[in-house]
Amino acid sequence: MSETNNDYGAFYAVPIHRTDKWVIEMHGLIARTLQCFLQDTYGQGIWQTIAELAKLDFDDFEAMLDYDARTVEQVVDAAGMCLEKSRDALLEDVGTYLITHPNNEGLRRLMRYGGVDFFDFLHSLEDLPGRTRLAVADLQLPELELTDSAPGQFLLSCHSGAAELAGFGFVLVGVLRAMADDYGALVILDHRGALGEAEVIDITVVETDFAEGRSFELAAAPPPIRRETTS
């Protein structure tokens, strides 16, 4: 199997018509992201064990290919079994990984463009699908809707259609938790389950300046200039 790379993705699938049957195919970035998460977090040996449990007949997922959704679901199930984690906890860990792992610094920067503090970031979430397409042109995310329920309290609805991976809301919880830490905000998150086709997340912002956040600059600092000495 090859080494992991800097691929990051979204959890998206499209139904296609094949041999008179509807087959759900997922964007290859989903599967590749899941593989990178498992390799980077638990190591190559664990990934190989999970791949065997999932009965994969290939070594690595390719980000530019589409895969039968059942194959990706088999990997999720096998990972939960191998790691003794629930599906919800596993998907939340994937969301945290997308922001915190050094391989995904590009995605973290994309998310930080949402605003100068966590409140600004929350209000930018509805624009996330468009901003994501700046990085990956054909990538589509579930529609997000933010509602102010009280001062400092919000409801975030994740409208995942039937063609999208179940549990995207838990990935989003992981992303939100990691971004709160990134901004230095104290936030309480509660996945309240599904309401129709939407997963609902309750967000309470206790304090925006609770701790020192991670450093962030709009433009990455240039590499230091190496000065040659002359004798």
UniProtKB/TrEMBL annotation:
Residues 27-183 form the Heme NO-binding domain. GO terms for molecular function: heme binding. Signal peptide: none annotated. Gene3D superfamilies: H-NOX domain. InterPro entries: H-NOX_domain_sf, Heme_NO-bd, NO_sig/Golgi_transp_ligand-bd. This is Heme-NO-binding protein. It comes from Salipiger aestuarii.
